[in-house]
Each structure stands twice: as structure tokens, then as C-alpha cells.
Write a sequence for this structure.
């Protein structure tokens, strides 16, 4: 509940939350309790399934789509889009266990924000949101608690852009990394 409340309090637009289908009921209840208006679930239909212990292996991931109840949300996508998105899983998935394809995140961003808008990802993971924002001219703010994945995000962004990451104080990422080692 607290995480949903924090996100909805700070967000002026649409909210997309990718999750395990085993948590659908919990997330939907928490989202509504925090004042969220649940619009639909988008189904990310993957080209391969994830091995697990279930009788049927999941080949999809639900994405909750909604916004703060009583507020406007921005829609700039085409009206001919369905709620099943057939997007291939990344071939190489050794960067993060739940890595999202940039194409998947980019689609949500293009549908629900304008150029120069600020996009928040409170679970930065592998940095797909950062790269999707870079591709679409949006500004990104990511939160990632695990330093290992912060490194993944920064390196992935540097590889994609060819630029060198720096902190707000001007310290280069490579120099900051050396200070920690």
C-alpha cells in the first residue's frame, strides 16, 4: 500500500506496473486503496516462457495501467491499440532477472507522455526505462537500491549513448566507482 501511495502522490500522469501474475490481487487492492484508478491490465505476451514450478509455465506478464482517481491522465497513443503487447523478451538476460525490453517501456512512454516530460521508475532494474526515455526525448528519474544494478543501469546507458555518466557534482561514474573500490 505504501509504495502505491507514494507513487500516486507524486505522479501526475499514467502509472504502469509490471508484476508477477501471482501478485495481481494484492497489487490491484493496494493500488485502489491508495487512491488509484485501475483502467486495465496490459498483457505482455512473451515469445518464450519463464521456467518455474507451476504446472503451466507463464509466457506473459501483466502490467497494471491506471492513474490517480479523480485526476486527468495524458493519452497520446493511437486509439487502435489493444491490451496484448507481443514484445520479445531480451535474448540476453544476464543483466537483471526481470529485464524489460526497451521497446515495451518505450511504447508505454510514447502513449502516456510528451517530449521533455519526466518519467519515474522506482525500480530501475536494468535501465530499460532510462534508455526508452533517452530514445523518446523524455527525462528519466530512476530509483535502484541494489548498487550492482545501479552499475548495470549506468553502464548500459553509457554503452547505448556513447556518453560518459557523471554525478550531479560533476564526478565521472568511473571515478566515483574507483572511490568505492
Amino acid at each position: 500500500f505504501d509504495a502505491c501511495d507514494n507513487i500516486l502522490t507524486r505522479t501526475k500522469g499514467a502509472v504502469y506496473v509490471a508484476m508477477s501474475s501471482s501478485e495481481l490481487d494484492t497489487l490491484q487492492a493496494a493500488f485502489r486503496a491508495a487512491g488509484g484508478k485501475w483502467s486495465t491490465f496490459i498483457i505482455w505476451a512473451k515469445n518464450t516462457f519463464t521456467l518455474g514450478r507451476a504446472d503451466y509455465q507463464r509466457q506473459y506478464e501483466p502490467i497494471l495501467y491506471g492513474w490517480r482517481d479523480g485526476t486527468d491522465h495524458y493519452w497520446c497513443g493511437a486509439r487502435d491499440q489493444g491490451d496484448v503487447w507481443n514484445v520479445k523478451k531480451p535474448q540476453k538476460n544476464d543483466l537483471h532477472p526481470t529485464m524489460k525490453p526497451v521497446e515495451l517501456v518505450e511504447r508505454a512512454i510514447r502513449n502516456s507522455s510528451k517530449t521533455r516530460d519526466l518519467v519515474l521508475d522506482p525500480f530501475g532494474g536494468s535501465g530499460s526505462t532510462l534508455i526508452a526515455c533517452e530514445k523518446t526525448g523524455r527525462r528519466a528519474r530512476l530509483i535502484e537500491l541494489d548498487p550492482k544494478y545501479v552499475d548495470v543501469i549506468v553502464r548500459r546507458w553509457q554503452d547505448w549513448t556513447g556518453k560518459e555518466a557523471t554525478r550531479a557534482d560533476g564526478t565521472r561514474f568511473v571515478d566515483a566507482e574507483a572511490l568505492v573500490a
Observations:
- The chain has a mean pLDDT of 90.
- Residues 1-86 form a domain with the Rossmann fold fold (CATH 3.40.50.150).
- Residues 22 and 54 are 11 Å apart (CA to CA).
